[in-house]
């Protein structure tokens, strides 16, 4: 039969035998020493003490064995007739029965105490694990993180192989590296939204628990646990508690992501509608002027003086070129915002870009107001000539539009940056307005009634400065007017070892 | 003899306006709405200049430019929207004479046509070797440069660069063409050479280098010499 015992059971039997022998031998030795000094009853007490001690330390079989051993030894060595197993007095029979009863009682009590202690310790361990898991999950930044932390917690609690997967809409997500049958079990668990495996009544033949992450209707994944320890009902509940924490963490992350997405969508929608409103305003205003002037020429030409006709024609040309500028700004802004437009980055000369923009603006009636000062020997900058030209043109156009006096463009070098500033003497930018003028579609308070179309221009300027790694700032000038300053980074200059 | 201009443009309104404006300037105007129609007209009618719109329904304008260049020096002026910059440069490199960015004023178109027509039949005419405008004289034969009657000294590279622009006679010369002609084909991407040397040239040839009157920049495309 001994062959049928497990190593643990064999060790337990060995402990019992040794314990009983030691206890009985010790009690016999002490009783022998006390022989003649104390009464037979006191000697019986020594044996009783040994039984109590053995019953506390050993299991139930050991306890009974120690009681039988103690009574037998007491009877054999000390109860007359000595060195026989006969019992003379009824008293001794009672002592034997009492000892057996005490042994059983103590053994039962101590076993219960041990069980409860162990249970309390395990429960303490489990709640500590849950607390630690909850704290770790709070710091998780993504689902992958959550699954990793959850796997760690399950593996630590059950000392066996663990697989965790996330699921969406009832379908298990990425399960690379997980055996097919386990993956099927996980999918099944997500589908049924119930714990499967031994002791659950569902698929008890499985060799692992399959625990859904989250309650029915909101299952966000599943866990597979092969417990090497705590493979009981309490352990399974612990696995479910861990799964619930992991599920909460995943649900929290998903909710946050959904919130963010909703807010972004709202923002996009808002931007889109302001964009459309602004563009349609910016396009419609010059179009209205063109249609009015052209139809007037078409229908009333005979009644218009030559000078009036000339004025209307000039208005059509001016409004059309304004329309063209607005269209160009809008298109570039949309392209830059979409990020799809590949910039043509080349070495550019700011002097050259400014020169060709100014040459174009000089053709306008108000173009003579522009003054240009460019520091000699400016370094080249890396950039897209068309975009940078558009930036400079918008700044100058803006300054001409919002002021009547001279407009000055100055380009110079300051440390590792190349500065281009455009100054005007207009109404200036109000306190608190400085940052907002670069928002798409923003129109300055002092500029609403008579002026138009700047909304997109400055937003585009800012976007162009940004894609060049530069900055665009606006400030008020001490004696009125505003100053827009573009700062572009100066990179290491290209090698120019050339033949003269 | 009246000069004949072929306008290749698929938008009817633009086509009609161009037809009317060019006719008012005394040109015979032919129109085509597609590359195939343009090709057919070029084969069967006398054409002295082509105004070519990009983004035609049946294909690539570059094909037409190459076809024309295989057999003649017929001037071609490209009309394109800004976002067609890259295509525009390709066409200029393929042999187109000049370009206009849409929207353009009729005056600009006529100026480009005038410049381009000066080169009609360049193959048999002597090349242009002299620029004389607004006090600036660049004489390639005499290897002499004067500003306001004062002789100027140009370095050999500066002179080669100026000479390329003089020979183009007011037409735009792309970065690629200038780099290839002055520095050689291996420097075709070294746009910074141009930036630096154009700045040097302007410092010598222009009264106000930051607002050049002679050496004009075509942003993102190349350079040209201003013509009166």
How do the strands and helices of this protein lay out in sequence?
The complex is a heterodimer of chains A (500) and B (228).
Chain A lengths: L6 H28 L5 H18 L2 H18 L12 H49 L4 H16 L3 E7 L2 E2 L7 H13 L16 E5 L7 E5 L7 H68 L5 H33 L7 E3 L1 H13 L7 E5 L6 E3 L1 H17 L5 E8 L2 E7 L30 H14 L3 E6 L5 E8 L11
Parallel strand pairs in A: 6-8
Antiparallel strand pairs in A: 1-2, 1-4, 3-4, 5-7, 8-9, 9-11, 10-11
Helix pairs in contact in A: 1-2, 1-3, 2-3, 2-4, 3-4, 4-5, 4-7, 5-7, 7-8, 8-11, 9-10, 10-11
Chain B lengths: L3 E5 L3 H13 L3 E5 L2 H10 L4 E5 L7 H11 L4 E5 L4 H9 L4 E4 L4 H12 L12 E4 L2 E4 L4 E4 L2 E3 L3 H13 L4 E2 H9 L7 H15 L9 E4 L3 E4 L3
Parallel strand pairs in B: 1-2, 1-3, 3-4, 4-5
Antiparallel strand pairs in B: 6-7, 7-8, 8-9, 10-12, 11-12
Characteristics of this structure?
heterodimer, A: 500 residues, alpha+beta, Beta-Lactamase, Helix Hairpins, 4 domains, 5-stranded mixed sheet, 4-stranded antiparallel sheet, B: 228 residues, alpha/beta, Rossmann fold, Arc Repressor Mutant, subunit A, 5-stranded parallel sheet, 8 helices, 12 strands
Structural class of chain B: alpha/beta
Weakly predicted, low-confidence segments of chain A: 446-454
Q: In which range does the helix fraction of chain B lie?
A: 40-55%
- Range of strand content of chain A: 5-15%
Q: Please compute the radius of gyration of chain B using only Cα atoms.
A: 18 Å
What is the mean pLDDT of chain A?
86
Shape of chain A: rod-shaped
Q: Which value, in Å, is the CA radius of gyration of chain A?
A: 46 Å
Tell me the total number of β-strands of chain A: 11
């Amino acid at each position: 039969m001994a062959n049928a015992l497990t190593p643990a059971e064999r060790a337990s039997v060995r402990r019992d035998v040794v314990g009983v022998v030691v206890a009985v031998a010790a009690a016999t030795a002490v009783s022998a020493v006390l022989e003649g000094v104390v009464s037979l009853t006191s000697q019986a007490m020594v044996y009783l003490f040994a039984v109590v001690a053995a019953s506390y330390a050993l299991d139930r079989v050991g306890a009974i064995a120690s009681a039988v051993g103690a009574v037998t030894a007491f009877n054999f060595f000390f109860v007359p007739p000595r060195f026989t197993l006969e019992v003379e007095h009824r008293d001794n029979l009672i002592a034997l029965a009492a000892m057996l009863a005490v042994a059983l009682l103590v053994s039962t009590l101590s076993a219960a105490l041990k069980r409860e202690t162990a249970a309390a310790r395990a429960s303490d361990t489990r709640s500590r694990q849950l607390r630690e898991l909850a704290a770790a999950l709070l710091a998780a930044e993504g689902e992958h993180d959550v699954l990793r932390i959850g796997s760690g917690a399950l593996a630590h609690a059950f000392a066996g192989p663990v697989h965790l997967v996330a699921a969406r809409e009832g379908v298990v997500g990425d399960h690379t590296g997980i055996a097919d049958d386990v993956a099927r079990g996980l999918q099944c668990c997500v589908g049924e939204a119930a714990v499967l495996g031994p002791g659950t009544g569902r698929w008890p033949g499985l060799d692992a628990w399959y625990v859904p992450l989250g309650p029915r209707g909101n299952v966000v994944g599943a866990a597979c646990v092969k417990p090497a320890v705590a493979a009981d009902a309490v352990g399974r509940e612990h696995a479910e508690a861990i799964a619930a924490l992991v599920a909460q963490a995943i649900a929290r992350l998903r909710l946050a992501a959904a919130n963010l997405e909703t807010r972004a969508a709202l923002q996009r929608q808002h931007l889109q509608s302001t964009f459309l409103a602004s563009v349609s305003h910016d396009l419609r205003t010059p179009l209205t002027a063109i249609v009015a002037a052209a139809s007037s020429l078409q229908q009333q030409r005979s009644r218009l003086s030559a000078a009036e006709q000339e004025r209307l024609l000039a208005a059509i040309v001016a409004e059309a070129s304004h329309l063209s500028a607005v269209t160009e700004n809008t298109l570039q802004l949309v392209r830059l915002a979409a990020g799809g437009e590949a910039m043509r980055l080349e070495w550019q000369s700011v002097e050259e870009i400014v020169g060709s923009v100014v040459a174009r603006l000089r053709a306008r009636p108000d173009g003579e107001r522009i003054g240009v000062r460019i520091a000699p020997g400016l370094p080249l900058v890396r950039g897209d000539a068309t975009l940078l030209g558009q930036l400079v043109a918008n700044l100058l156009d803006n300054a001409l539009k919002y002021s009547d006096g001279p407009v000055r463009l100055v380009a110079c070098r300051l440390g590792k940056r190349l500065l281009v500033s455009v100054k005007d003497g207009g109404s200036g930018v109000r306190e608190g307005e400085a940052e907002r003028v670069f928002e798409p579609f923003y129109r300055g308070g002092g500029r609403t009634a008579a002026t138009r179309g700047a909304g997109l221009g400055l937003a585009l300027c800012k976007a162009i400065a940004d894609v060049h790694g530069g900055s665009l700032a606006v400030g008020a000038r001490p004696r009125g007017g505003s100053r827009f300053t573009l700062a572009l980074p100066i990179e290491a200059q290209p090698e120019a070892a050339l033949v003269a | 003899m009246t000069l004949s201009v072929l306008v290749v443009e698929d938008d009817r309104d633009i086509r009609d306006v161009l037809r009317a404006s060019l006719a008012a300037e005394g040109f015979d105007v032919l129109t085509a709405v597609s590359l195939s129609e343009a090709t057919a007209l070029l084969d069967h009618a006398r054409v002295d200049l082509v105004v070519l719109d990009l983004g035609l329904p049946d294909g690539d304008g570059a094909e037409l430019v190459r076809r024309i260049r295989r057999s003649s020096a017929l001037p071609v002026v490209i009309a394109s929207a800004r976002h067609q910059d890259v295509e525009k440069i390709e066409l200029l490199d393929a042999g187109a004479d000049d370009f206009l960015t849409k929207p353009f004023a009729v005056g600009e178109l006529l100026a480009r046509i005038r410049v381009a027509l000066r080169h009609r039949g360049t193959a048999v005419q002597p090349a242009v070797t002299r620029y004389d405008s607004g006090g600036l004289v660049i004489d390639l034969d005499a290897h002499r440069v004067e500003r306001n009657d004062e002789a100027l000294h140009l370095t050999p590279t500066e002179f080669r660069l100026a000479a390329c622009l003089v020979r183009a006679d007011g037409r735009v010369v792309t970065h690629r063409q200038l780099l290839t002609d002055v520095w050689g084909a291996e420097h075709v991407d070294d746009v910074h050479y141009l930036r630096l040397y154009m700045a040097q040239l302007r410092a010598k040839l222009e009264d106000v280098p930051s607002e050049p009157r002679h050496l004009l920049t075509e942003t993102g495309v190349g350079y040209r010499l201003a013509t009166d």
